[in-house]
C-alpha cells in the first residue's frame, strides 16, 4: 500500500511475464518480525512449489475466500480477517518485512483464517489458484507508477484483469482502490473495457468505501488534508 512501501529504489525487475509492477525494495525485518516469520511461515506460508492448491484443504473448510494482492505491512488484511472469522484470506506480498509483520499480527491476534504467499502475484494467479475459487480479489493502493513512461508497469492492465476474472466465481468481486487520481482514471478505463465485469456502482461510477475495507492511518491523514481515495468494485458476470 502506498503508505507502507519504501519507493526509494525504482529499478524494474523482469519476470517470465515481462516487467514487474513492483520493485524489490531494501529493508530488514525487525527482530519481532523475523521471529514471527521463523515460527509461523511453516504453518501459514504457501509456496509456488506446492503448485495448484485446493483452498478447502488449505483451510480445512469450505468458506468465502478472499485474495489480497500487495498487502504491504499486513495490518489491513489482519483487520479484515479478524472481523470476518467465518471467511478465509490469502495474502500476497513480495517484501519480507511485510510478510513478517503480517505473521506477527496473525500470532498476536490468534488468526487461523490467513495464509500467505511471498512471490509474484502473477505466479499465484497462473500456477497456484484454481479457476473460480475466489469470492473477492482486493488490490489496495498498488504502486501508482505516476510517471507516464512508467504506466506500462502498473499492475491493473487488461491482461491481468482477465486472468483475475477466471479465478473469481461468477458474482465474485474485484475491489480496487487508489489515492492517485490518474491511476483511478486508468483503472476505470481498464475495467470499463473488461469483458465479463459489471460496475457495482453503475457505469463509470466509483464506489463509496465499503465498511469492510479498513481505513489506513495514511488514508485518515490524507482525508483530513482533503486528499481523495477512489474505490472501484466490479462483479464477474460470466
Automatic annotation (TrEMBL):
The keyword Cell wall biogenesis/degradation does not apply. Coiled coil: none annotated. Substrate binds at residues 147, 179, 216-219. It comes from the Bacteria. It catalyses: guanosine(46) in tRNA + S-adenosyl-L-methionine = N(7)-methylguanosine(46) in tRNA + S-adenosyl-L-homocysteine. GO terms for cellular component: tRNA methyltransferase complex. Gene3D superfamilies: Vaccinia Virus protein VP39. Its EC number is 2.1.1.33. S-adenosyl-L-methionine binds at residues 68, 93, 120, 143. Pathway: tRNA modification; N(7)-methylguanine-tRNA biosynthesis. It is an enzyme of class 2 (transferase). Keywords: Methyltransferase, S-adenosyl-L-methionine, Transferase, tRNA processing. Pfam families: Methyltransf_4 (PF02390). Belongs to the class I-like SAM-binding methyltransferase superfamily. TrmB family. Catalyzes the formation of N(7)-methylguanine at position 46 (m7G46) in tRNA. This is tRNA (guanine-N(7)-)-methyltransferase.
Amino acid at each position: 500500500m502506498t503508505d507502507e512501501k519504501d519507493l526509494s529504489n525504482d529499478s524494474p525487475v523482469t519476470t517470465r511475464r515481462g516487467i514487474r509492477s513492483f520493485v524489490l525494495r531494501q529493508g530488514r525485518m525487525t527482530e519481532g518480525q523475523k521471529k514471527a516469520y521463523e515460527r509461523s511461515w511453516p504453518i501459514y506460508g504457501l509456496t509456488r512449489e506446492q503448485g495448484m492448491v485446493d483452498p478447502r484443504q488449505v483451510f480445512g473448510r469450505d468458506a468465502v475466500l478472499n485474495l489480497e494482492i500487495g498487502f504491504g505491512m499486513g495490518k489491513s488484511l489482519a483487520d479484515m480477517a479478524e472481523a470476518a472469522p467465518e471467511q478465509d484470506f490469502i495474502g500476497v506480498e513480495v517484501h519480507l518485512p511485510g510478510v513478517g509483520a503480517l505473521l506477527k499480527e496473525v500470532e498476536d491476534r490468534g488468526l487461523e483464517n490467513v495464509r500467505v504467499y511471498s512471490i509474484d502475484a502473477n505466479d499465484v494467479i497462473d500456477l497456484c489458484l484454481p479457476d473460480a475459487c475466489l469470492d473477492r480479489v482486493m488490490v489496495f493502493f498498488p504502486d501508482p507508477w505516476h510517471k507516464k513512461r512508467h504506466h506500462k508497469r502498473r499492475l491493473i492492465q487488461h491482461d491481468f484483469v482477465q486472468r483475475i476474472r477466471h479465478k473469481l466465481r461468477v458474482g465474485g468481486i474485484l475491489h480496487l482502490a487508489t489515492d492517485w487520481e490518474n491511476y483511478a482514471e486508468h483503472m476505470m478505463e481498464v475495467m470499463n473495457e473488461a469483458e465479463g465485469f459489471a460496475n457495482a456502482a453503475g457505469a463509470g461510477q466509483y464506489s463509496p468505501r465499503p465498511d469492510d475495507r479498513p481505513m489506513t492511518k495514511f488514508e485518515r491523514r490524507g482525508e483530513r488534508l482533503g486528499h481523495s481515495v477512489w474505490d472501484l468494485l466490479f462483479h464477474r458476470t460470466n
